[in-house]
Amino acid sequence: MYNLLKGKKGIIFGALDENSIAWKTAERVHEEGGEFVLTNAPVALRMGQINALAEKTGSQVIPADATSLEDLENLVEKSMEILGGKIDFVLHSIGMSINVRKGNHYTSQNYDWTQKGTDISAMSFHKVMQTLYKKEAMNQWGSIVALTYMAAQRVFPDYNDMADNKAYLESIARSFGYFFGKEKTVRVNTISQSPTPTTAGSGVKGFDGFLAYADKMAPLGNASALDCANYTVAMFSDLTRMVTLQNLFHDGGFSNTGVSDDVMEAFVKGLE
């Protein structure tokens, strides 16, 4: 441990269980000396084990629907009370597609479900930042990070409307990040993570094949949830204070690999 976050305070959205990237991040932030409030939607709190994480890290849990401005205002106000001041870091680790859950193909969406998924997965990031911005809740040189995936740039057919949500999320990070940087000296970035076997990620059709393919493509293999937590800690620290408006690929090199020897070998074998 390096005490990278000693004295820093924040909010972590989206920890569900020990497989969650947000869960691993909370553990690592705690180990690096940071304090935080944990939050998730009430239904997710009932499904997960967040209270165990709170006990382990000496944190408090505040239920909040990230699509509700009223809930977010309450969350930010109470977090500053609990933490004793303004906030240094925020992790947005939220995503959900009802179309994916219900097995609707991308070409046959239920648009009410699409809109709900967009609100949860992307618009909520704007709402979180707008609330922080209006309440002057962030300290100078603070860091806001959201988790995304490369389907925002390339076609992954079974990722469905979540690909659109991630593209929107990344755009919000850049657009709001400009104002947060210019007017509040706060940085905003997204981390584009390898496919990771979380509870949410595993709901995507063909996920196991997806995971294996990415692992064979990436020169370093897939980045784990713990690897992502470590990278997020670095983004929260003062070591990265001039990095903003970036979509940062954290995928073992997958995003810049056209084809790998392993994938080519498997393809050629399939032709024999």
Task: List descriptors.
alpha/beta, 10 helices, 272 residues, Rossmann fold, seven-stranded parallel sheet, 7 strands
By oligomeric state, this entry counts as single chain
Strand ordering within the main sheet: 3-2-1-4-5-6-7
C-alpha end-to-end distance: 51 Å
Radius of gyration: 18 Å
Tally of contiguous helical segments: 10
The proportion of residues forming helix, as a percent range, comes to: 40-55%
Question: What proportion strand?
Answer: 5-15%
Number of domains: 1
How many extended strands?
7
- Poorly predicted sequence stretches spanning 5 or more consecutive residues: none
Binding site for NAD(+): 14, 20-21, 94, 166
Pathway: Lipid metabolism; fatty acid biosynthesis
InterPro entries: Enoyl-ACP_Rdtase_NADH (IPR014358), NAD(P)-bd_dom_sf (IPR036291), SDR_fam (IPR002347)
Catalytic activity: a 2,3-saturated acyl-[ACP] + NAD(+) = a (2E)-enoyl-[ACP] + NADH + H(+)
Question: Explain this structure to me?
Answer:
The protein has one domain (9-271): 3-Layer(aba) Sandwich (Rossmann fold), CATH 3.40.50. It is 46% helix and 15% strand. It contains 10 helices and 7 strands. The protein has helices spanning 21-31, 42-47, 50-57, 69-83, 98-102, 111-134, 162-184, 207-217, 225-236, 261-271, and strands spanning 9-13, 35-39, 60-61, 87-92, 138-148, 187-193, 247-250. Helix 1 links the parallel strand 1 (9-13) and strand 2 (35-39). It is globular and about 65 Å long.
